[in-house]
Specification:
Distance between the termini: 117 Å
CATH architecture of the largest domain: 2-Layer Sandwich
Bound molecules: adenosine-5'-triphosphate
Structural class: alpha+beta
Low-confidence stretches: 95-108
CATH topology of the largest domain: Heat Shock Protein 90
CATH class of the largest domain: Alpha Beta
Strand order of the largest sheet: 5-4-3-6-2-1-7-8
Number of domains: 4
Strand content: 15-25%
Length: 620
């Protein structure tokens, strides 16, 4: 027997849908007011398209109920059936244009709404919504009232036209008690300002006692100002009100092709490159989001923008930008504009450039690595840590055309004093971006050379000691080599400046890794130990360079007693370790303690021996 087929239509559980929207699409119940304002704006846009002289105002009334009244196109009874009673259907797509179809593209230029779900946001704060409307398209049409409930029931009735004297629409909500915080009069004023501050139609919020608040104002970039200075001051004041900081400078943004205008405010304090600023993006005046880092390229983290655009698309939550070709073109164009501002500063306002670089040099360094033109302009201005102190590369290269750059901050700390005394010019390349940038100096400043600093370069600048002196030091050096050799470190004696530095530890990363490997090898056996052992032979060892010119070393070299020589060698090694300013391992801290106790014990058991020039011994 054939099975009979029956046709059905999907049923929508409205409560479930509203729950989904409020918990998964919208970040907060507050978006209900944005959706209401947006529908009002779109309705006015539609009416003015057929009657350019039609009024365009929006009035929000607070109290026991909340109403939003607009002077827009209004709805006929047929419209109500078609658009209000069908979720997902919108009059803002031409024909039955699909969400990504031609209909949407054609209409998008005009309207903010497109999805046909906005009104549902009102069910997040109300169980009942009433729409009372009279169309502007047909003067003889009756007024129509649609009353919808959050459980999915709705009623429609027509009323005499006189019930709504002027064309337009009033949406009325009866606020729910549990979400009353979002519909309180103060909150409504704040929300209307937040979302509608840049709307082009007049928005007024009227309180329960009749007091009214004008919500929107002309953005500063659209206002006429007496002078460029007055314009600048107005922008600065705007930034203070909006973002709560006084900008270092303001960069006006104008991309006619993208229908975008606005301003980028340069932050007055340094921010981490990882902490990208949230930009405020308005869509046809309506605030879309105040947290859109994707508006600008990553490197531009030193500005905060506020823009109004007609071309960017919102996501369905209407709280973020839809990532499409337009957004990426806008991002590139805005990045270009900010870069032009920066490169232009060198010529127009060097002192501002200085202040900017003082504050944001990390950002600029990040940017300059990828941008040759910018690199050429800003590199001479950027400060680097060098053996001449914190100076610009331009200044440094004047006295040191052959620059050496370290791979780490630690290496710089170890060798900087010795290199400086030997007349070498060393730049600390250990900070983020610095080494890359220093290496590019010869492109910009021909005649300059840049080489990575390795321990051998420094050793080559340390003078060999007189053979007779080396011979006199031989027995101490032998003990020192035995003692320090267990730490995979050689000991040599050299003459070098400054005299005040007793010892220098030349120790690079590879040598340190080698120590880790050898300690692992000591703990392992079999094949693993053999592998580690063979690696070990190829690795460079660290070097403890004792300064023969230093009085402390000279005295140590005269020690004849083995125990004291061991302690002195450990103390010199420990001191060099401390000077290298890298974190000490447990075994190194133990060595330092041992050396100190050893010296103290020795001193306490040698009555009457005082160091030359020291105070005579006295009882405590
Ligand atoms: N104030 C109003 N005046 C005239 N028509 C309105 C008004 N509010 C809503 N409508 C009609 O109801 C339809 C559905 O509104 P809704 O807010 O749900 O979606 P939308 O605005 O079309 O799209 P989106 O979901 O993107 O906001 C609109 O397309 C419009 O035809």
């Amino acid at each position: 027997m054939p099975h009979s087929e029956t046709a059905h239509t999907f049923q929508v559980d409205l409560r479930g849908l509203v729950d989904l929207l409020s918990h998964h699409l919208y970040s907060s119940p507050r978006v209900y007011l944005r959706e209401l304002l947006q529908n009002a704006v779109d309705a006015i846009t539609a009416r003015q398209a057929i009657d350019p002289g039609a009024p365009g105002s929006i009035t929000v009334r607070t109290g026991d109920t909340l109403t939003v009244t607009d002077t827009g196109i209004g709805l006929t009874e047929a419209d109500v059936h078609r658009f209000l009673a069908t979720i997902g259907r919108s009059s803002k797509r031409t024909g039955e244009g699909a969400l990504d179809g031609a209909g949407l593209d054609a209409a998008r230029g005009e309207f903010i709404g497109q999805f046909g779900i906005g009104l549902l946001a009102c069910f997040v704060v109300a169980d009942e919504i009433t729409v009372l409307s009279r169309t502007a398209a047909d003067p003889s049409a009756a007024a129509v009232e649609w009353r919808g409930h959050s459980d999915g029931r709705y009623t429609i009735r027509t009323l005499p036209a006189s019930t709504v004297p002027e064309p337009g629409t009033t949406v009325r909500l009866v606020p729910r008690v549990d979400t009353a915080e979002w519909t309180s009069p103060d909150q409504v004023v704040a929300l209307a300002r937040h979302y509608g501050g840049l709307l082009r139609h007049e928005v007024t919020v009227v309180g329960a006692r009749g007091e009214s608040h004008q919500v929107n104002e002309t953005p500063p970039w659209e206002q006429a100002h007496r002078s460029p200075l007055a314009r600048r001051e107005a922008m600065t004041a705007h930034c203070r009100t909006l973002f709560d900081f006084t900008p270092l400078d303001t960069i006006e943004l104008d991309l006619p092709a993208a229908g975008l205008r606005g301003v980028a405010y340069v932050l007055p304090t340094a921010v981490s490159p990882a902490q990208r600023a949230g930009h405020r993006v308005h869509l046809k005046g309506m605030l879309l989001t105040d947290q859109a880092p994707e508006l600008l390229p990553e490197w531009a983290f030193f500005v905060r923008c506020v823009v109004d655009t007609t071309s960017l698309r919102p996501t369905a939550s209407r709280e973020a930008l839809y990532e499409d070709g337009t957004l990426s073109a806008v991002r590139d164009a805005l990045g270009e504009r900010i870069r032009d501002w920066l490169t232009g500063l060198a010529a127009s306002d060097p002192s501002l450039l200085h202040r900017f670089i003082d504050t944001h040099h990390l950002a600029v360094k990040a940017l300059a690595r990828y941008d040759d033109e910018l690199l050429r302009i800003v590199l001479p201005w950027l400060p680097f840590e060098t053996t001449d102190g914190n100076v610009t590369l331009e200044e440094f290269a004047r006295t040191h055309p052959a620059l050496l750059v370290t791979r780490s901050v630690e290496e710089f700390r170890q060798v900087a004093p010795i290199a400086a005394a030997a007349g070498l010019g060393v730049v600390n390349g250990g900070y983020t971006y610095d080494r890359d940038l220093v290496h590019r100096l010869p492109e910009i400043r021909p005649g300059t050379s840049v080489t990575d600093l390795d321990p051998a370069t420094v050793t080559a600048h340390l003078d060999a000691v007189d053979p007779a002196a080396e011979l006199r030091a031989a027995s101490f050096l032998a003990v020192a080599r035995d003692t320090i050799g267990v730490h995979d470190c050689d000991v040599v004696l050299r003459d070098f400046q400054p005299v005040t530095a007793p010892a220098l530890l030349l120790d690079n990363r590879e040598a340190r890794h080698e120590r880790t490997r050898s300690s692992l090898a000591a703990e392992s056996d079999g094949l693993w130990a053999d592998i580690l052992g063979s690696l070990r032979q190829e690795s460079p060892r660290a070097q403890l360079v004792l300064n023969h010119l230093n009085p402390l070393v000279r005295q140590a070299l005269t020690i004849t007693e083995r125990g004291l020589a061991v302690t002195a060698a450990e103390a010199l090694y420990g001191q060099a370790l401390l000077l290298s300013r890298r974190p000490l391992r447990a075994s190194e801290s133990a060595l330092l303690n041992r050396a100190f106790i050893g010296l103290l014990t020795h001193a306490m058991h040698q009555p009457g021996t005082a160091a030359p020039g020291s105070e005579p011994r006295k009882e405590l």
